[in-house]
Design brief:
The structure is a single chain. The chain contains five helices and two strands. By secondary structure, the protein is mainly alpha-helical. It has two domains: 1-33; 36-118. A hairpin with a 2-residue loop joins strand 1 and strand 2. The longest helix is centred in the first third of the chain and has 31 residues, at 2-32. Residues 1-18 form the signal peptide.
Length: 119
Amino acid sequence: MRVSCLLLFACTLALAQAGTWRQSQDYISSDEARPSWTHRHSEIWPCDVADYPEAYLLIHKVEKRLERMDNEQLKSRIVDYVVGELRDCKTGNDMDEHCVKRSIGYAMSFINRHKKQQL
């Protein structure tokens, strides 16, 4: 009975260790495969939100939309809105990836609404 318990305990520890090792390998490989459009310390995006990899997708999508606009005042308003959304997604030194992904829809809606108002 004792041997079975010890064997079960050893297997449980080994599986837990293997899971931890696998998660660390996933984290390392995701850092190596960063997209080419990662933050470039532009003057548009403040570092307190743009330095988070979780924010890159939203920033990239908004930058693509901003490239097609001529109105600098509207661009500034959009950037301010998106920065506010990203700051709302921060908790301490972490940024919630799911919050950022939800913010993509809000930001695109904001952009479309303001573009229509400009017409």
